[in-house]
Structure prediction request, 180 residues.
Amino acid sequence: MTREIQHVPYGYEPPPEQRKGTLVFYDSFEKISDYELMAAAKEATDRQFTKLVLYPLHEQTVRRMSKEPVQPYHKREDRLHEWKREQGRSFITVEALEGKRKKYTPLDSALRHIAEVYPSPLFLYLTPEMANQFASFSSFEEWIVKLRLILSESPSAAHPRLLKYRHRWNVAGEERKGEA
Prediction:
């Protein structure tokens, strides 16, 4: 194996990494359209995230959170993989934790896994309904100080905890003050 020698001037420091952090789209993806997926990808690109992680929920998790009927996990996951291939972008990842577990995964466990695997800072991309559900959990106040939220649209009725931590979230496409 040959080594290539590079010469750099004294005191040279490599330029800082422009892209940083992870945007995690946490949802069942039952009602999410391709247009909404494109909006999430655009937000990740605009904010220069290293990764966009699509985190589909297992049907057991969805049933415990919302009691809504949902397609089998593998069908929703296959749709996300197909959409990812169509985009041809390497920074998009489909997280398979819930597919491996094949059962209900508490949000705390999912967030701990995401925090261990993906580069920080972490941002959760949520629909207003999912954000209100997240805010209703007792662990919300513990997590909201460790990550930030980006809502796909402005909520018509926000949970009181979501309103309390208004400074930790904003709506996709809103003017930002350099948090990412």
Observations:
- The CA atoms of residues 144 and 168 lie 7 Å apart.
- The mean pLDDT is 87.
